[in-house]
Amino acid sequence: MLIMNNIARIYRNETIQTHALRDFSLEVKAGEFIAVTGPSGSGKSTFLNVAGLLDTFDSGEYQLDGVSVQGLSDNQLSKLRNEKIGFIFQNYNLIPDYSIFDNVDMPLRYRGFNRAERKRRVEKALEKVGLASRASYLPSQLSGGQQQRVAIARALAGEPKILLADEPTGNLDSLMARQVMELLHSLNQEGTTIIMVTHDPDQAREVSRNIQIIDGEISDFRIYAPLQENQLNDKESHISDKEAVDA
Amino acid sequence: MLNYNLKLALISFKRAPSLYFLVILTLSIGVGLLCANLALVSSMASDPIPEKSEKLFHISMNTWPNDQPNEEPFHILRYRDAMKITESDIPKHSAVFYESGVYARDAESTNLKRFDSKVRATTPGFFALTNAPIAYGSAFSKSSGMEVVIGHELNNKIFAGENSVGKVLELDGELLMIVGVLKPWHLRPLFYHATEGRAFNLTDDIFVPLETAIDLGWSIHARSSSTVSYKGVKFTRDRNVFYLQAWAELENQNKVTAFQQYLDNYSQSLKDAGEHPLDIRNELSNVNDWLLENDIVDQKVLAFTLASVLFLCVCIFNASSLLLSRFHAAKFEVGLRRAIGASNRDMLLQGMTESILLGLFAGIASLLLAWLFLKLSSEFLPDLANLAVLEPKLLLVGILLSLFTAISSALYPLYRANRYTISAELK
Q1: Looking at the complex, does the CB of residue A83 fall below 8 Å from at least one CB of chain B?
Q2: Of A102, B213, B256, B317, which residue is 20 to 30 A from B282 by alpha carbon distance?
Q3: Residue A226 has what pLDDT?
Q4: Is A87 close to B11, i.e. CB distance below 8 A?
Q5: Which of B2, B3, B6, B340 is the best mutation test for A, with the most CBs of A within 10 A?
């Protein structure tokens, strides 16, 4: 699903260079649920941005669902983002003066679907997150947890191959965070590949794999739950010579 | 996608109405001012009779009878030179005329109010030559007779716009019958009398046969020049009094050449008879050349138009700066849209749609302002009254200019908005 080989991302200004990612290699199989952890400034968000084609990289190779992304035009990258990736942001990133329906509909607008198809997909996505009855509400009329579920519905509406979640429960209280995590787990059980950046070690333990990033490199990874055979080949999933440790 | 982009543009306007109002106001003041100036320039520079302007020729002659002539052939002719023109059968139509003025009233009315009226004393060919539009009756057919054709405005004033053919006007104490009434007739410029700063006067109120006006002694209300003293227009027929303007309609180049030869032969015959010592130099100028020769486009208006172009540039920079702040505020949404699959092209199209809509709103506002500027100009500068007209083509120019300025204003903000990486836009 996602293969990164020796990716480097360097931010430069007049005085210093910051290696946000260095020699970063990772392979993610279809159906995996991966938690990415690490201290602030370690490169988690950079990894997620590069993985989600929101940022470029300086060297290395990156394949997303069999497509090598190097050298793709802005149009091709946009199409890839639209069709294969769903984003979930920490602060939901809903447009406040759009209805829930219009927020979820947004990515579909750029896909060229007709009105009926968009409606079907939006309703299906909202149903999946349990908010079908709130389609006409504004985001401000919903709780934080519900808003994050709307954001998840927006990510799901395009039926992406992979969900990228940047601290999806970071702004939620524990009860709402629990509900969102349950939703993500159920989506994963239905076959959606998920990569989630989190600071919560409990959440990191709930998923199939936890990758820890420090100083732009993978410093550790742990497999917490066995994946089905067709989803993960242990040998292929090893991204470096670091040792896998069972929880 | 167009519908969606239009919807997004309207939402964007609703989010920051004050800012967009300022942008529209800024652009519309700039465009409105320029449109008002262009309206003046357009009126000054337009072809007043495009269907035949290439075929109508003003006649200037060099028949001054002594050795102190004008540097150029004279644009006014004496009676016998002018009559020589009307005698020729080379032109399809010819017209010889001078401007006068009388007080007019309905001879049968008990109302003694008289209207100060401009008179064109002319040969009958004037009407066909100028395509004067007849509403009722017909033009007079002879150069003499107590008949007149009156203009639409005077007919409105005296007869409330009704068909007044057959009615009698009292003109400076003389009774003349109306044989024709013109439709509203706007000539901008008034090509048949473009000299002496009258190019933007209204068309005349009364058209009277030339011989009748001379016989009645209706004075000359335009430039005249003479080498002898005379007591009035009645005594001009056989004297060196230059006051008649002459035009000829020549249908093709052969006729132009033939007519030029006709005039030159006539001048030569005068010279041979010792009536003038000058070189033979007669000039035929078609309508547009004649208007150019008379410099009827005011240089001050041209300078002000240039200034208003520069002012419009300032308005574009101001609008651009306002839009830059707006687009900066919308950076997050741009980032979000791109993150979920919109391409740079999609965002550019969305921005352009917003600009075009902005341009249309600014276009409507600018036309209203242009109309207001022209109205104020007419109010404070009455000389401009007949020029300050917003013609349909200017309406289109106003809308197109507004679209151009709105798009120009948005180009840099759009360029900036699309230069950030998506991750930076989402922060």
Answers
A1: yes
A2: B213
A3: 52
A4: no
A5: B340
Rounded mean pLDDT of chain B? 90
Interchain CB distance below 8 Å, A55 and B422: yes
> Closest to B340 (Cβ–Cβ): which among A49, A75, A82?
A82
Alpha helix positions (H), B92-140: 125-130
Residues in B closer than 8 angstroms to A82, CB to CB, are: 340-342
- Give just the sign of the alpha carbon dihedral B399, B405, B409, B415: positive
Given an 8 Å threshold on Cβ–Cβ distance, is A109 in contact with B339?
no
Strand blocks (E) in B54-202:
56-60, 77-78, 93-106, 115-122, 134-137, 147-150, 168-171, 174-182
Write down the pTM of the prediction: 0.73
CA-to-CA distance for B273 and B265, rounded, in angstroms? 12
Residue type, B415: Y
Domain positions in chain B: 2-47+298-426, 62-281
Residue B417 has pLDDT above 80, yes or no: no
A100-150 tens-digit pLDDT: 999 999 999 998 889 999 999 999 999 988 899 999 999 999 988 899 889
Alpha-carbon gap, residue B135 to B180, rounded angstroms: 8
Q: Taking CB atoms and an 8 Å limit, are A107 and B346 in contact across chains?
A: no
User: Do B148 and B169 meet the contact criterion of CB atoms below 8 Å apart?
Assistant: yes
Cβ B426–A54 below 8 Å, yes or no? yes
Query: Per-residue DSSP letters for B284-349?
Result: EEEHHHHHHHTT-S-HHHHHHHHHHHHHHHHHHHHHHHHHHHHHHHTHHHHHHHHHTT--HHHHHH
Domains parsed from chain A with CATH numbers: 29-56+78-246 (3.40.50.300)
Q: Which residue has the tokens 């990569």?
A: A195
Distances (CA, A) of B128 to B54, B183, B248: 15, 14, 11
Quick: pLDDT tens for A167-190: 888 888 888 888 888 888 988 988
Query: Which ipTM value was assigned to this complex?
Result: 0.83
A160 touches chain B (CB under 8 A): no
State which of B177-181, B314-318, B382-386 shows the largest mean pLDDT: B177-181
Query: How far does B397 lie from chain A, in Å, by closest CA?
Result: 35
Q: pLDDT band at B69, cuts 50/70/90?
A: low
